[in-house]
Structures are given as structure tokens and as C-alpha cells.
Design brief:
Strand content: 25-35%
Structural class: alpha+beta
Helix content: 25-40%
Number of domains: 1
Strand order of the largest sheet: 1-2-3-4-5-7-6
GO molecular function: acyltransferase activity
InterPro entries: Acyl_CoA_acyltransferase, Bact_Acetyltransf, GNAT_dom
Enzyme class: transferase
Protein name: GNAT family N-acetyltransferase
Radius of gyration: 16 Å
EC number: 2.3.-.-
Largest sheet: 7 strands, mixed
């Protein structure tokens, strides 16, 4: 896949369709491969990226997905980033960002900011009082981005085993929509 870059190239943010599943998987896999290469052994990282590359068709077809929103950011004719958000729990006016990834070729280009701005508007329209998200403690680039967007650490942590038997620590972030 060729990804075009450039500050003069406009970014289109739109709701994802089933036709975007493969491109979303590619963005997810490549972002994971590059961002987490120092956090996992190479054989496990390959397995994790392959799984992310192929998961989006089934995620988008699931019943649970109906309550969620998936936005993609395009530059030219390529999906270069996506954000997946939805309600935290039924009956609670709080939301969660489940995934926010940009292809490494789009890092530093402002695409993630544009995408997050659009997702934030939708969160406000959905009347979420607060938005939660979790990220790996070693994902420093992501943590810096979330903090620069106004998210703060809650102090809550959890261990997440991605399948290699070596749990990593995740930290929760939170931001009020008001």
C-alpha cells in the first residue's frame, strides 16, 4: 500500500463501512508493529499484528458493534487512521475510545488530531459526560497524544495478556466532555 503524505493534502473523516475493514486492519497492524516493537518479542508481535490485520470484518459484523461508532480518516484515496468508540456500559452516560490508530506514515501529520476532533464532537452529541480509554504503559507516543488532547490518568491500572503469557500493564485515561 502506498500512503501519500503532505500538509496540503486534505483529510476526509467519515464513518467506516464494511468495505474499509481491510484498510482498517492494515492501519491497525502497522501501527501496532511499529509502536510496540520494543514491548513484545518479535514472534509474538508478528502474531498480534496478523490478528489485528484480519479482525475488522468480524468486529464490524458483530451485534455489539451496532452501538459503536467507527470513523476513518482518509488522505487521498487511502485510509490512514481510524477511531472506534462507543458507550462504556448500558445506562451509563460515559463513553470509551476502544481503538485509535494511525498508520506510521501519517504520524506527526495532524491526521490523529483531526480524527480525534471529529470523534470528540460525536461523543458530545451522544451526551457522554466523560470518555475513558486504556493504553499500554510503554506506548509513550500514544500516551503523549492523549495527554496533549486533554486526557488525564485516573490512577487505575490493569494487566492485559495479549496471548503471549506475559501480561503488560495498561493505564486508564479520562476526559470530561463538559
Amino acid at each position: 500500500m502506498v500512503f501519500r503524505r503532505g500538509p496540503d493534502e486534505p483529510v476526509l473523516v467519515r464513518e467506516a463501512t464494511q468495505d474499509d475493514a481491510e484498510a482498517i486492519g492494515e492501519v491497525h497492524a502497522e501501527a501496532w508493529r511499529v509502536a510496540h516493537r520494543d514491548l513484545f518479542e518479535s514472534r509474538w508481535l508478528r502474531r498480534f499484528t496478523d490478528e489485528r490485520r484480519g479482525r475488522w470484518k468480524s468486529v464490524m459484523a458483530s451485534r455489539e458493534f451496532v452501538r459503536n461508532t467507527l470513523l476513518v480518516a482518509e488522505r487521498g484515496d487511502r485510509v490512514v487512521a481510524f477511531v472506534h468508540l462507543g458507550p462504556l456500559e448500558y445506562g451509563v452516560r460515559e463513553g470509551e475510545i476502544f481503538d485509535l490508530y494511525a498508520h506510521p506514515s501519517a504520524w506527526g501529520s495532524g491526521v490523529a488530531w483531526t480524527l480525534m476532533d471529529n470523534a470528540w464532537e460525536l461523543a458530545i452529541e451522544a451526551r457522554y459526560r466523560r470518555i475513558h480509554l486504556w493504553t499500554i504503559t510503554g506506548a509513550n507516543r500514544a500516551r503523549h497524544f492523549y495527554e496533549s488532547f486533554g486526557f488525564t490518568r485516573t490512577g487505575r491500572t490493569r494487566e492485559q495478556d495479549f496471548g503471549d503469557g506475559r501480561p503488560v500493564l495498561e493505564v486508564e485515561y479520562l476526559r470530561s466532555t463538559r
